[in-house]
Specification:
- The chain has 297 residues and is mainly alpha-helical.
- The protein starts with a helix and ends with a helix.
- The protein has one domain: MetI-like (MetI-like fold), CATH 1.10.3720.
- It is found in: Cell membrane.
- It is a multi-pass membrane protein.
- Keywords: Cell membrane, Membrane, Transmembrane, Transmembrane helix, Transport.
- Its main location: membrane.
């Protein structure tokens, strides 16, 4: 059926709004990239918006030459990998167990878990709990507290409940135990949902600066986002110009060509690019998992 003039007009308006939305998202990224690839002194004059006017790699050499940020990257990668896979393992096991309708005290357990999602004791009691458990100022403060997500568990539980029970019953008749059913039936069928939840979890770990700022005092244990937060609030370049490699980079470039803003932009780009590069490979699973979860929920 041929679209009416009003329908075509509405479609063009929607397309225009989507284009404006895309530009508003992409432009800040391109602006930061241009500043990070431009000499700081030249960028301070203004007029650099989409393309570097005075191209240089010195800002990235300064950032990557800092041993603190290199170690922060290792911390961030480690917590993201361990936290994501550990969180998915705990989530799917909890959801699988609570998906059994005849589980004793199932409704009471679900109600108790739901209460923990709606209410919490606050930041100070949480910090005291971490301190009593010996997690503060350790690497595991990034991993252990986030292993279980109530929201992820409920989403996964709804998905598992949508799997035909006849498949599980047939496996039980063949002598399969709960762990075999989990590994050979539940996990393979849950790959789209696991990919979606895994992406959410990984992005949360990668972008988290709060834990490193409040639960860790050792500078060798801070993640890259906490380092970025410290750099963005810095007033001079002393926090990033301390290593020998930084001094070598400075020897090849005049100090006047480097500004705090240009180094900040390079740090932002370095911290954002990895997660942006991973997302396209998981996009199809992410979209499929979200759609399935919305239908099953």
């Amino acid at each position: 059926m041929k679209a009416t003039l009003l329908e075509r007009t509405a479609q063009w308006i929607i397309v225009l709004l989507l284009i404006l939305l895309c530009v508003s998202v992409i432009y800040p990224f391109l602006y930061m990239l241009a500043i990070s690839l431009n000499t700081g002194a030249d960028a301070a004059k203004g007029g650099v918006y989409l393309w570097p006017r005075s191209f240089t790699w010195i800002n990235y050499e300064i950032v990557l030459g800092n041993p603190v940020i290199r170690h922060a990257y290792l911390i961030t990668i480690g917590r993201t990998v361990l936290g994501t896979f550990g969180g998915l393992a705990v989530t799917i096991m909890a959801a699988y167990g609570l998906s059994y309708k005849h589980l004793p005290f199932r409704n009471g357990i679900l109600t108790y878990i739901l209460i923990t999602m709606l209410f919490n004791g606050g930041l100070i009691p949480f910090y005291i709990q971490l301190f009593k458990l010996g997690l503060t100022n350790t690497f595991w403060v990034y991993v252990i507290p986030g292993l279980f997500s109530v929201w992820n568990m409920f989403v996964m539980q709804k998905f598992i409940q949508g799997i035909p029970e006849v498949m599980i019953e047939c496996a039980e008749l063949d002598g399969a135990g709960p762990f075999r059913i989990l590994l050979q039936i539940i996990v393979p069928l849950s790959k789209p949902m696991l990919a979606a939840l895994g992406l959410f979890t990984a992005v949360g770990h990668w972008n988290d600066w709060f834990s490193g700022a409040f639960y860790v005092n050792d500078q060798n244990l801070i993640p890259v986002q906490t380092f970025l937060q410290q750099l963005l609030t810095a007033q001079d370049l002393s926090s990033v110009l301390s290593s020998n490699q930084n001094q070598e980079a400075l020897a090849r470039s005049s100090m006047s060509n480097i500004t705090l803003m240009s180094v900040k932009m390079a740090t932002v780009m370095i911290s954002a690019l990895p997660i942006l590069l991973v997302y396209p490979f998981l996009q199809k699973y992410f979209v499929k998992g979200v759609m399935i979860g919305s239908v099953k929920g």
